[in-house]
Amino acid sequence: MPLTPDEIAHFETQGYLILNATERGFIDAAQLMRMQQAAEQQLAEARQPLELETSTGYPSAPDSLQAPGGDTVRRLLGAHGRHRSWQAWATNKAVVQCLGALFGADGVVLNRVHHNCLMTKNPRFSSATGWHQDIRYWAFEAPELVSVWLALGNEHSNNGALRVVPGSHRVQLDAERFDDRLFLDPDHPQNATLLAQAVDLTLAAGEVLFFHCKLLHSAAPNHSGQTKYSLVYTYHDGGNAPLPGSRSAALSGIALTG
Ligand SMILES: O=C(O)CCC(=O)C(=O)O
């Protein structure tokens, strides 16, 4: 069994699950180090495709390319094709088995349209990400995708780790509770009650967070002295197809189990 019944139940009720990838034997310390070194190198090279903090328009992001920190990278895109160690992690057998236990009756498919990235958070120039559900990035037959977030270094409230609202993936949230960028509207009266249940997640290097695409989450800027690096991929069941003509259908997924 890749996951215990308790772990599966935790994911189903809370919308997320944290495992230690090295302690569980998904990867060894040398593999983790190769991914960390690749992250530093790739960020220094800053090859396209990438997303800058400036382009997010989020609070505290530099407001133009010309502003101090205007060329700060937020995401290196296309992570699966960027480095051998990152590709090996994206297709890691144990991770795929875990995903198969969470959904995957029709096989596990790696989505390349969103996430599929190295997420970075610069200590001097980083933004705050408001409360949102990642399903806003995709259009699928069923809103059932799971992201796998690998902490390449320690993540905590001081360097902009994720906060989540446990169980929010199963809460019915009408469109009027979100703003026009699909962030949860903090001024809506019902949202305050929901957000009072939020918890800060702490991840050690090598810990991996599985989270449902409807789990509400947010993150603060990085107030530490070091860049934060996380490798993030998203997967879905082979029987759950992207809607024809949508951005989600623009790039084929990679089937990892039949
Ligand atoms: O690290 C962050 O600021 C949050 C990123 C995030 O939630 C996202 O890109 O969907």
What are the main properties of this structure?
single chain; 258 residues; alpha+beta; 9-stranded antiparallel β-sheet; 4-stranded antiparallel β-sheet; 6 helices; 13 strands; binds 2-oxoglutaric acid
Can you describe this structure?
With 258 residues, the chain is of the alpha+beta class. The protein has helices spanning 5-14, 29-45, 53-56, 84-90, 93-102, 189-195, and strands at residues 16-20, 50-52, 73-77, 108-111, 117-121, 129-132, 145-151, 162-164, 199-200, 207-212, 217-219, 228-237, 254-255. It is globular, with a radius of gyration of 17 Å. The two termini are 18 Å apart. 2-oxoglutaric acid (AKG) binds next to strand 11.
Apparent shape:
globular
Ligands present: 2-oxoglutaric acid
Uncertain runs: none
Query: What percentage of amino acids are in beta strands?
Result: 15-25%
Listing every helix as H and every strand as E from the N terminus to the C terminus, the arrangement reads: HEHEHEHHEEEEEHEEEEE
Helix content: 10-25%
Gyration radius (Cα, Å) is 17 Å
Mean pLDDT: 96
Number of helices: 6
What's the total number of strands?
A: 13
- The rounded distance between the terminal residues' Cα atoms is 18 Å
The major sheet is characterized as:
9 strands, antiparallel
Task: Label the structural class.
Answer: alpha+beta
